[in-house]
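Students often ask why we bother predicting the structure of a whole assembly rather than each chain alone. The short answer is interfaces. A chain on its own may look different once its partners are present, and contacts between molecules only exist in the joint model. In this exercise we take two input lines together and write out one structure for the complete complex. Read the inputs first and try to guess which parts will touch.
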Amino acid sequence: NAGVTQTPKFQVLKTGQSMTLQCAQDMNHNSMYWYRQDPGMGLRLIYYSASEGTTDKGEVPNGYNVSRLNKREFSLRLESAAPSQTSVYFCASSEASQHPYNEQFFGPGTRLTVL
Amino acid sequence: QKEVEQNSGPLSVPEGAIASLNCTYSDRGSQSFFWYRQYSGKSPELIMFIYSNGDKEDGRFTAQLNKASQYVSLLIRDSQPSDSATYLCAVKPGRGSTLGRLYFGRGTQLTVWP
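Now the answer. The structure tokens for the assembled complex follow.
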């Protein structure tokens, strides 16, 4: 039981290059999330997927696209990377329910540098 | 916009002291509240969850919730150097939301010195 996995762990891009960050979970969760974390800014939600087949914008979606490939996998794509997208990216998953308890489980993160 | 505010710190306490971390939130209908701990270079991990007014204790950790004041806190008793980390407050929106989405504060950096 690996939980939430992300690839790659580190990546360096040049401005204008594209790349896809991969995320997979084996906990049979309905909901998945992509965050970015910058110093002093906390976790900011980029996109989320409440359930397979749906995606919605979060707080900072500009410059990103997502695909919920199936229930397990949720990818984040940078079409034309910019230095402002240098950050640590976390994927997370959770059950989607009205119950008050709704822990999000986080992957190990991807450290992305855009030169 | 659902705001979650935390003192950014850094908060520095000696070993054995009580560390007090605070969080306020803007959405009065918020349902439940989470405290995540994040060590440097690592991903966040859940340490406490609370949804009823009052105190909830788990070992050296106590979460306190006051919905009338829209305030949640985390107390760490007998602080240890291993508690040095950033603590993130997260809030789940009110009833009717099935998304599981959480709103995070910016985090409070805690240092416990020996």
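Check your guess against this: The CA atoms of residues 45 and 70 of chain B lie 23 Å apart.
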